[in-house]
């Protein structure tokens, strides 16, 4: 197992060459596990691999525990520091072996210690690299991975050879120096050898002709190193077997090795002998035999035996290439000719009596037996016609012989096992029957007891059926039976019995079929069905099945708990009878689409009502199963898989509302200041009105006193002087001018306070239930009112809100939170960028783009640093100083826009120039969203 080791804990400076990085390899990225406890060394190594152009991904383990935890993942290479505080490289190699991980390991060390290098390489490391010579690292990595691949390929080649050697249907032997070194199980069975006795046995012991067959001079250039010969072997019992020998020479510097492959051809030679016997029999038979080839034009004759020449007078050479109809002469209207033509078209056998003409013109009656000859695939390759001159009295005898030959041929070639049972013994079995029982014709020569092959307890049924058949019972089938082969193994069969005769005695013809595979498949199918039903009924997710007519066919326990409806009530009803209620319509629409497209769909936050009145939400996945639905597209069975999302939805709503209230809390001081300003001048105006009213009241009282009382009022000069002085002090023209102004200013202040309070109320409200159309322009203006104190000292706000912007289907309370976060972030960015007290600019715009709306929040602040851009939407990530930011603002914005509204949020930024956040929202939310 190759290993790379890092040793001493010294710091090294990596010198990165000033050159263009090498081109990237097209090979898959190398998965590296780095075992190192120093971050500087980890950084150094990573940078070196990057500069070298190596495609890789790296996992960093700093301790023994982290290394052990990492072994559950897949890696191509381990690079390990030689010594860590709690283990060294040899420990790492031992742990890899202990966990059965065949991963190459390279060791990095800080010093050139020859003893360490030798010990490490002997311990199993693939290579050792000195940290001061990291230029060797990447070549070492490539060499080690190449060696590891070659080792894997060699191991695979060995496994393949062993599999071929063990499972070959032929006997495989390997010899050297004339003695047997290796033999597979087939060879042991063929030669009747025991494995402990086979090793070292002279090959000539069982292959006497080996010295004659193998070339005497293996260096002769004319030698064929892979030849196929026919010879014979002698097994351990002395029995001689005909074999086909294939030998091949493998020459090395030390020796010459022979690979011998033996194939038992005794059966094949016996079949060839039988074939030659059949050919001689056909040549010697008194029946004319014609064989035609229907694959050629006009089905010409390709074989004629001597008897055909004797019967017809035509020599075989005169008949070859001609259609059999030439024997009819001009007599083409015979009744049996129609039967022959129909049989040829149907591909079946037939017997007909035809009037034919010999070569000399004389007529003869020909009893023709015509039969198709089929190959293993069932294709007709030839027609065989057997001609019989039935002009004389032997017509009946010849017909019986042909009939017996025909049926024997059918039984011999039948793939179904056929037995003849007489007096509780098997007296005949066709080749398929012998294969089924593992017997031979020789064993059946004297008959075999039926009890030898039928398991105890089933013999009576079989014997009774046979007895009934012999007594004239009609053909029929027996119950399934258990039989056993000659080797003792048992199997199940189905038996058809038919009465027949054998040797003049009543017998039964049994047709037997092995049904073991079918029974095993049925058991496996029943088991799989039971397991599937158990799994579907026990899963925690809601599972509902719908038939093609949209009636409920499956309703598991989770569905009963979720909707509070028993399965007995739901099954057979429509989906509208479930707790989906108003949500049923979009679900059915999605089901219709899935049926047509043969696909699947997902609906998020689908509302349902429990039978008790409780309300919840589900995420529903719709699957169309068309495996057994036939050609009709709308006949698919539908499965609904529902996951409970009520708790998550409630938690998200509480979290977003809490964040909103937290934001308002942070803005409270600014909002108080905004309210305080109009309240101050309202108070000042009220005091002015109070003082002015007091002056006017005093002047009016003095004037009243100067006029006196009663109808005959007399002006008191002294009181009149005092009244005039009071009016002069009150400055009536001034009050007539200022009092209306004070009242107008106070009314204006009250309006401003009411507007701020209304904006706060709209912003902090938890929001309406579900998606509803909302005015985004008004929502932005409300947010600007609430957050004015956050930006008014650092920036001016310019709005470009599209007055024709349509209402957008959304959760407006959540979008208010997004607008506030973006506005506050823009103000903080401008405040950080401007230290001279000048104000920046925040621009907010809205517009419609087809079926979506786009919102832009632009500032001229600091911009986002390049290192932070990839993580800007990650939770708890912030670029602000400690205590200034929570890292939740932009994360919540991303969640609300992307997950809740199926929209997008992106940004354009440049350091020192500013940032623009771009939001797109669909005008109408998808069903279930």
Core attributes:
five-stranded parallel sheet, disordered N terminus, 929 residues, six-stranded antiparallel sheet
Account of the 3D structure:
With 929 residues, this protein is an alpha+beta fold. It is built from 26 helices and 35 strands. The strands form eight sheets. It has a six-stranded antiparallel beta sheet with strand order 20-19-18-23-22-21. α25 (812-833) runs antiparallel to α26 (889-900). The radius of gyration is 51 Å and the shape is elongated. The two termini are 53 Å apart.
Percent helix range: 40-55%
The fraction of residues in strands falls at 25-35%
Give the overall shape: elongated
Identify low-pLDDT runs: 1-21, 459-474, 629-634
Q: What's the pLDDT, averaged over the residues?
A: 78
Largest sheet data:
6 strands, antiparallel
Gyration radius over CA: 51 Å
Number of E-state strands: 35
Question: If strands are numbered along the chain, what order do they take across the biggest sheet?
Answer: 20-19-18-23-22-21
Provide the structure class.
Answer: alpha+beta
* Quaternary form: single chain
Write a compact overview of the structure shown:
By secondary structure, this protein is of the alpha+beta class. Helix content is about 40%, strand content about 25%. The strands form 8 sheets. It has a 6-stranded antiparallel β-sheet. A 5-stranded parallel β-sheet has the order 2-1-3-6-7, sandwiched between helices. The chain has a 5-stranded antiparallel β-sheet with strand order 9-8-12-11-10.
């Amino acid at each position: 197992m190759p290993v790379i080791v890092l040793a001493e804990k010294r710091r090294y400076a990596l010198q990165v060459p000033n050159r263009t990085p090498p081109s990237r390899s097209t090979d898959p990225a190398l998965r590296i596990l780095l075992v190192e406890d120093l971050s500087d060394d980890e950084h150094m190594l990573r940078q070196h691999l990057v500069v070298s152009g190596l495609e890789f991904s790296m996992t960093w383990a700093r301790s023994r525990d982290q290394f052990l935890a990492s072994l559950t993942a897949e890696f191509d290479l381990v690079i390990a520091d030689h010594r860590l505080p709690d283990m060294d490289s040899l420990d790492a190699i031992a742990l890899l072996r202990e966990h059965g991980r065949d991963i190459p390991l390279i060791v990095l060390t800080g010093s050139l210690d020859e003893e360490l290098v030798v010990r490490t390489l002997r311990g199993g490391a693939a290579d050792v690299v000195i940290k001061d010579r990291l230029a060797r690292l990447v070549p070492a990595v490539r060499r080690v991975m190449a060696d590891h691949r070659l080792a894997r390929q060699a191991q695979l080649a060995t496994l393949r050879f062993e599999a071929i050697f063990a499972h070959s249907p032929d006997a495989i032997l390997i010899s050297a120096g004339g003695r047997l070194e290796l033999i597979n199980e087939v060879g042991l069975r063929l030669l009747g050898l025991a494995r402990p006795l086979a090793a070292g046995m002279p090959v000539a012991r069982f292959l006497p002709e080996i010295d004659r067959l193998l070339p005497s001079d293996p260096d002769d250039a004319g030698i064929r190193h892979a030849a196929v010969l026919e010879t014979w072997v002698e097994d351990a019992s002395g029995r001689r077997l005909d074999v086909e020998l294939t030998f091949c020479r493998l020459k090395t510097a030390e020796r010459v090795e022979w690979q011998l492959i033996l194939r038992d051809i005794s059966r094949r030679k016996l079949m060839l002998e039988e074939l030659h016997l059949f050919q001689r029999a056909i040549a010697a038979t008194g029946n004319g035999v014609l064989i035609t080839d229907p694959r050629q034009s006009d089905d010409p004759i390709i074989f004629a035996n001597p008897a055909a020449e004797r019967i017809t007078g035509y020599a075989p050479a005169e008949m070859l290439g001609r259609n059999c109809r030439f024997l009819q002469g001009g007599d083409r209207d015979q009744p049996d000719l129609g039967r022959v033509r129909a049989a040829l078209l149907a591909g079946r056998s037939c017997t007909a009596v035809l009037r034919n003409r010999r070569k000399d013109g004389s007529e003869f009656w020909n009893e023709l037996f015509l039969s198709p000859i089929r190959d293993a695939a069932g294709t007709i390759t030839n027609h065989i016609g057997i001609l019989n001159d039935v002009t004389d009295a032997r017509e009946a005898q010849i017909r019986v012989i042909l009939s017996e030959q025909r049926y024997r041929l059918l039984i011999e070639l039948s793939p179904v096992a056929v037995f003849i049972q007489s007096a509780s013994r098997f007296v005949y079995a066709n080749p398929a029957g012998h294969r089924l029982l593992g017997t031979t014709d020789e064993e059946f020569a004297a008959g075999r007891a039926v009890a030898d092959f039928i398991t105890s307890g089933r013999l009576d049924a079989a014997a009774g059926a046979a007895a009934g058949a012999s007594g004239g019972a009609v053909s029929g089938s027996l119950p399934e039976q258990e039989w056993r082969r000659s080797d003792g193994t048992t199997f199940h069969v189905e038996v058809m019995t038919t009465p027949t005769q054998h040797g003049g005695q009543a017998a039964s013809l049994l047709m037997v079929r092995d049904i073991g595979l079918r029974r095993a498949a049925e058991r496996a199918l029943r088991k799989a069905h039971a397991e599937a039903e158990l799994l579907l009924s026990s899963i925690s997710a809601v599972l509902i099945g719908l038939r093609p007519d949209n009636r409920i066919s499956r309703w598991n326990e989770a569905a009963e708990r979720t909707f509070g409806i028993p399965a007995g009530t739901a099954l057979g009803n429509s989906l509208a009878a479930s707790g989906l209620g108003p949500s049923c319509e979009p679900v059915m629409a999605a089901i219709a689409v899935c049926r047509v497209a043969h696909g699947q769909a997902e609906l998020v936050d689908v509302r349902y009502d429990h039978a008790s009145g409780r309300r919840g939400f589900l995420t529903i996945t719709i699957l169309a199963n068309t495996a057994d639905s036939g050609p009709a597209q709308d006949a698919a069975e539908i499965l609904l898989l529902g996951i409970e999302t009520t708790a998550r939805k409630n938690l998200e709503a509480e979290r977003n509302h809490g964040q909103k209230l937290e934001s308002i809390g942070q803005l409270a001081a600014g909002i108080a200041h905004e309210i305080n300003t109009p309240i101050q001048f309202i108070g000042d105006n009220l005091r002015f009105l109070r003082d002015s009213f007091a002056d006017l009241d005093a002047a009016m009282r003095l004037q009243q006193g100067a006029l006196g009382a009663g109808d005959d009022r007399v002006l008191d000069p002294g009181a009149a002087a005092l009244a005039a002085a009071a009016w002069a002090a009150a400055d009536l023209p001034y009050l007539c001018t200022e009092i209306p102004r004070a009242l107008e200013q106070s009314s204006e202040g009250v309006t401003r306070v009411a507007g701020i309070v209304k904006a706060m109320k709209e912003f902090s409200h938890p929001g309406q239930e579900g998606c509803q159309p909302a005015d985004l322009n008004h929502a932005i203006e409300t947010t600007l009112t609430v957050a004015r104190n956050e930006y008014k000292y650092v920036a001016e706000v310019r709005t470009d809100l599209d007055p024709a912007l349509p209402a957008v289907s959304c959760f407006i309370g959540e979008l208010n939170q997004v607008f506030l976060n973006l506005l506050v972030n823009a103000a903080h960015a401008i405040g950080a960028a401007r230290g001279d007290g000048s104000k920046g600019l925040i621009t907010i715009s809205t517009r419609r783009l087809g079926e979506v709306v786009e919102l832009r929040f632009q500032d001229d602040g600091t911009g986002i640093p390049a290192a932070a851009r990839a993580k800007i939407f990650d939770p708890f990530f912030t670029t602000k100083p400690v205590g200034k930011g929570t890292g939740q603002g932009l994360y919540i914005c991303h969640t609300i826009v992307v997950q809740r509204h199926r929209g997008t949020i992106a940004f354009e930024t440049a350091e020192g120039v500013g940032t623009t956040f771009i939001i797109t929202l669909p005008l109408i939310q998808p069903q279930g969203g």
